[in-house]
Amino acid sequence: MRRKPVLLLLSTCVFAGPLAAQSALPTASSADRVEAHALFKELIEINTTDSPAGNVTTATVAMQKHFLAAGFPAEDVHLLGPDPRKQNLVVRMRAAGATTEKPVLFLCHIDVVQALRSDWHTDPFEFVEKDGYYYGRGTQDMKESDAALVATFLRLHREGYKPRRDLILALTADEEGGKFNGASWLVRQHRELVDAAYVINPDAGGVQLDHGRTIVADVEATEKVYSDFQVTATNRGGHSSLPRPDNAIYELTAALNKLAAYSFPFELNEVTRTYFANLAQKETGQTVADIHAILATPPDLEAAARLSAEPSFNSNFRTTCVATRLSGGHANNALSQTAQANVNCRIFPGHSPEETRRQLIGVFNDPKLTVKYVSDAGVVSDVAPERKAIAPPAPIKEVFDPLTRITQQIWPGVSVTPVMENGASDSIYFAQAGIPCYGYSAIALERDDDRAHGQDERLPVDSYWKSLDFFYAFAKALGDE
Ligand SMILES: [Zn+2]
Fold first, then answer.
1. What pLDDT, on a 0 to 100 scale, did the predictor assign at position 23?
2. Fewest CB atoms within 10 A around its CB: which of 116, 205, 279, 436?
């Protein structure tokens, strides 16, 4: 996944974050930049798609070599995974001496979405610098952060930096698709290697620009859980010249119409509450009145209903489920024996897929229908997982304070806002394991230039250097805590 703007912002509003002094950050030296540039180029030019031409292990082995050559001890550089082509790399920078603080994990997927040469103006697996941009598959999602963090770890090691707690970097497979999701596998099979106080995942969040003007820096502080459900109506069928009241297609569509009319209960959590409180300062008119009304105790549900007309608000308020696929029947002149729909749900943190499956059964209220869970791998089962993403705590100060400070040193005046992502990233596997996750890329993109997964993916050159400065300062700040 990659950052998607989730804020609905009025173009006229002015953002007055606390004004920081002009950047006093230590910026990368030209030698540091040469190294970071070479790493970025190397990663872009290794095809890590989930396809016959792609191989994640080629990329993780290449990075492993850099860490070993730089003098990281072999026992702190782990190459591992369930498939020879999908090896993950986990690198640990050890704390100086004994520490009671849990580590910080930087979680970075190293795979990319497929890209076809015929769709692009340049070769997607060639690192091209043109007109102030770096072009190539993964320049936005998310090899820029992979490269910046590898460069940061190498630089900190070279400078003899000793954190007060371990810093871990995991470069993982199959976030974008494929059978061997590295984040999920690592947290289940090798928790000892990736266990952390919290996770920083640069696969979300970032700085939004509007014609070069800094709009907002959003930090994903929680995300919804993705789940698919298969809804099936079956019938003995028969000849279409002899219709009967019982009919698989009608029963399924009646159920889906009930879903269309249904809204899951309105909810707020610490993250969305903060988000809407911040937004209230920037909105006007009925919207601001409605936002205040939903933040009251008890919340005003009529105000929530009005705000829910905006899909991004609605999605931030509740679990959503929507029919996304439909199939049924076997002949034009026969009564259907099967009618089936896929219902895709984005589950509000604190609820499990199984709880949601039972809610769907309640909404459909038709015992003739079955509602089954469909896993990411497409496996259908009668019940869904009980695991839920933890309801997020208030954003951790030890993460947000340095994140805000350093962001405002680089982009003076920008406001930093925690958000709930309506999509999904690898953070979910750690959130389900009880580890808080924060999504922040530290890259600045024009709001209308989101090209993740698309053609001619590109990153402003300047944005890469700023993210490099950010991660260096941020890793040090977290390491010093
Ligand atoms: Zn991504």
1. 52
2. 116
Q: Tell me how far the alpha carbon of residue 452 lies from the centroid of ligand 1, in angstroms.
A: 8
Span from the CA of 80 to the centroid of ligand 1 (angstroms): 21
The rounded Å distance from CA 335 to ligand 1 centre is 45
Distance 175 CA to ligand 1 centre (A): 7
Helices (H), 45-142: 56-70
Q: Is the preceding peptide bond at 420 cis, omega within 30 degrees of 0?
A: no
Cα(128) to ligand 1 centroid in Å equals 20
Closest CA to 449 of 140, 131, 8: 140
Question: For residue 43, which of 89, 112, 106 has the smallest C-alpha distance?
Answer: 112
Neighbours of 76 (CB within 10 A): 16
**Secondary structure element (H or E) that encloses residue 48, with its range:** none
Residue 29: partners with Cβ closer than 8 Å, 6 or more residues away: none
Confidence (pLDDT) at 105: 98
Q: What is the pLDDT of residue 6?
A: 45
What distance in angstroms lies between residue 425's CA and the mean position of ligand 1's atoms? 7
**Which token pair is 63?**
């990075």
> Ligand 1 center to residue 150 CA distance, Å?
17
> Are the C-beta atoms of residues 301 and 264 closer than 8 Å to each other?
no
Give the separation between CA 429 and CA 326, rounded to whole angstroms. Answer: 29
Distance in angstroms (rounded) separating the CA atoms of residues 452 and 466: 19
Tokens 């601001």 -> residue: 288
For residue 288, how far is its CA from the centre of ligand 1 (angstroms)? 33
Residue with tokens 């931030």: 316
Q: How far is the CA of 113 from the centre of ligand 1 (A)?
A: 9
Strand 416-421 and strand 213-223: pairing? parallel
Give the distance (Å) from ligand 1 centre to CA of residue 77.
Answer: 23
Q: Which residues fall within 8 angstroms of residue 101, CB to CB, at 6 or more apart?
A: 95, 164, 165, 197, 481
User: Cα–Cα distance between 136 and 458 in angstroms, integer?
Assistant: 6
Interatomic CA distance for residues 217 and 229, integer angstroms: 34
Taking the centre of ligand 1 as the mean of its atom positions, its distance from the CA of residue 53, in whole angstroms, is: 19
For the stretch 206-228, pLDDT in tens is: 998 888 888 889 999 988 988 99
Band of residue 15 on the pLDDT scale cut at 50, 70, 90:
very low
